[in-house]
Amino acid sequence: MRKITDEEIAFFDENGYVICPKVLHTDELAHVQSESQRLIDDVLAGGPASARCDQGPEGIPFYLTYLHSNPNSFSLRLLAHPFVGDLLTRMVGADFVPLWEALVFKLPGNGSSVPWHRDDQSIIGEERVFNIDIYPDRSTVENSCVWVVPGSHRWDQQKADQWAERGRRDFDLPGAVPAEVEPGDVLLHHVKVLHGSAVNRSGALRRVIYFDSRATSWNERYNWFAREVLEKRCLLYQYALHERRTDPYPSDDEAFGYAVPEGMPVWKPGDPVDRYARREG
Fold this sequence. Notes:
This protein is an alpha+beta fold. It has one domain (6-246): Sandwich (Jelly Rolls), CATH 2.60.120. 30% of the residues lie in helices and 19% in strands. It has seven helices and eleven strands. The protein has helices at 6-15, 26-44, 75-79, 82-91, 157-169, 216-222, 227-246; strands spanning 17-20, 53-55, 61-65, 96-106, 114-117, 130-134, 147-148, 177-178, 186-190, 195-197, 206-215. A seven-stranded antiparallel sheet has the order 1-9-6-11-4-3-2. A hairpin with a 5-residue loop joins strand 2 (53-55) and strand 3 (61-65). The chain starts with 5 loop residues before the first helix and ends in a 35-residue tail after the last helix.
């Protein structure tokens, strides 16, 4: 299975984002495409998934939260992909715990915009806090790919706020570049890098699955989330790894070996697991 390269990590550190091409094999990619489309159809039909789907500035559904808790057969197995485990071990630390996931989609013809922003204003240290963005579809300027301002993850908050406000008046920010990707590619973007996207006016659907992970040692330092959240999420990740091991894709040639962080609970087959594992409150 593909691994992130040292060169890709260095590019990320310098620019606040990096595109890693050709991560998903065709069998998994096809499954992600079909299952994510089913969830989108459920949202648009007013089904159960619509209750956890946020709308964008234009009032258009685009952001399905707590993806694992919306019944599907792909998201936990995708989280357990060896590429994800390897890069988190190398970029976050062996004590990483996945803490958030979502399916974002831009509908054809009138897909929601995402104004210029930073994902997390609370990050004050130098830790690599980033989203893993896995793309089932081609994402281009034409169908409203994400744009980033390279290096803006190093800016102070005042400058980032000023540029975000400027981008809300005029989307074309100086130095911004389009993060165009192909189906099966992965984009990493730092939560402090300035990024956004326009309305999708094309006839092409654009989807992305987001994963956010943190180190338990970081959480002890900054107290972002209650310990109970990390414990539930750690159990959920172990369950995800079990799901992939016991129901692999034909192209799987390895499984990620996770060492449960010290002090975190160990999941055993048959134990209950909370697929929601709500992190708020």
